[in-house]
Design a protein that fits this description.
Elements lengths: L7 E2 L5 E2 L5 E14 L4 E14 L3 H21 L1 H4 L8 H14 L6 H38 L1
Antiparallel strand pairs: 1-2, 3-4
Helix pairs in contact: 1-4
Amino acid sequence: MSEGSAGGMAEDGGMLAETGRRISFVAETVGKVAAGVAGDVWANITQTQFSIDIDQAPKLITALESAIEELISAYEDSAELRNMQSPGKDPYSGFAILAARGSAGDQEGGYGWANKEAQKALANTIENVQRAIDEYNQTEQAARDGLKS
């Protein structure tokens, strides 16, 4: 550990990060909220500020990329629901299929829409983490360069 750090062992046995070795970033989540008496539904993006030890940031990016891959796979698997046909000619089967397609679909509120929005939110979070890493490294380099002069 470097001199003056707050590193060491946590009560739970985990390692505590060194002071000043953390980066902050914004993570996004997507949701829908009911608004008004008319029953309007609005999509909204929520942002939450987090911080992480700089050495753990690449692992976080890898995990977020893996989550995006899982979402892509789940979206591809859901194509069957978006494209299913009515099993019978009765109107009830037809309406049930239309409802299932809508729930699984890409229109706002459907699973496909939510999946794609989650992918975008994770991609934005990855960009925010990478930007924080880059800014940290630039600041560190500027400090080292300042000590050389």
